[in-house]
Amino acid sequence: MDLRGSMATLLVNLGFPTVADEKESAAWALGGRIGYLIAPNVLTYLDVGWTETHFDQMQPMRNSGALTGNAFPQHTYQGWFLGSGFEYAFNWLPIQGLFWRSEYRYASYQRDDLREFVIATGLPAGNAGLGNVLHSKKDVQTVTSSLVWRFNWFH
């Protein structure tokens, strides 16, 4: 996975505002779906479940492009998802088990506080030695479309 985002802090580091890029590097979901066959080869469905995602460490930089030497730690978030989609069966092809699936999914993860630290020492950065705190809340929206081949040999 390679989902990316960026954040800008309200902090001013040595007279410059800071920004940081972040990357969602892993995610998984476990849930269920319920659907309705609206045509002989079209299934619409809703799905819901539990999900977890991992964001890599963020290194703030000044708007000049210079790194601050600080970072916010990598973190794993847990939450829920809700989605909807459809599957279209290519049952008119000579190859059996071929489907086109498209889905929209919204995932909401719990809030958490990430404490900024100095990369060289690992000690808290800023705020009188206690560390600057980033109040982080993740919401991820995805749209996927895929070609699926199910091996239905016993169908």
Secondary-structure topology with pairs:
Layout: E1 3-13, E2 16-39, E3 42-55, E4 61-62, E5 70-71, E6 75-89, E7 98-109, E8 112-115, E9 117-118, E10 133-136, E11 139-149
Antiparallel strand pairs: 1-2, 2-3, 2-4, 3-6, 5-9, 6-7, 7-11, 8-10
Describe what this molecule looks like in 3D.
By secondary structure, this protein is an all-beta fold. The protein has a single domain (3-149), classed as Porin (Beta Barrel), CATH 2.40.160. 0% of the residues lie in helices and 65% in strands. The protein contains no helices and eleven strands. It has strands at 3-13, 16-39, 42-55, 61-62, 70-71, 75-89, 98-109, 112-115, 117-118, 133-136, 139-149. Strands 1, 2, 3, 4, 6, 7 and 11 form a seven-stranded antiparallel beta sheet that branches. It has a two-stranded antiparallel ribbon with strand order 5-9. The protein has a two-stranded antiparallel ribbon with strand order 8-10. A hairpin with a 2-residue loop joins strand 1 (3-13) and strand 2 (16-39). The mean pLDDT is 86.
Characteristics:
155 residues, 11 strands, Porin, two-stranded antiparallel sheet, mainly beta, single chain
Which structural class should the secondary elements be placed in? mainly beta
Radius of gyration, CA atoms, in whole angstroms: 22 Å
User: Do you know the CATH topology?
Assistant: Porin
How does the major sheet shape up? 7 strands, antiparallel
Any idea what the shape is? elongated
Distance between the termini: 33 Å
Total helical segments: 0
Percent helix, as a range, is under 10%
Mean pLDDT: 86
Indicate the low-confidence ranges by residue numbers: none
What is the CATH domain class?
A: Mainly Beta
What are the secondary-structure elements, in order, as H or E?
Answer: EEEEEEEEEEE
CATH architectural name: Beta Barrel
Tally of DSSP β-strands:
11
Strand content: over 45%
The total number of structural domains is 1
